[in-house]
Amino acid sequence: MDENYLPALLKCELFTNIGEDELKPLLGCLKPLFQCYPKNAIVVRNGERLDSLGIVLEGEASVYKESISGNRVLLKNIGIGEMFGEIAVFARQNEWPALVQAITPLTVCFISKNKIIDQCENVCKWHNHLINNMLGLVSERALILSKKMEYISIKTMRSKLSTYIYEQYLKRKTPTLTLPMNRQQLADFLNVSRPSMSRELSRMRDEGIIDFHQSAVRIQDIEKLKEFCE
Question: Environment class of residue 44 by beta-carbon count within 10 Å: exposed (0-12), middle (13-18) or buried (19+)?
Answer without folding.
Answer: buried
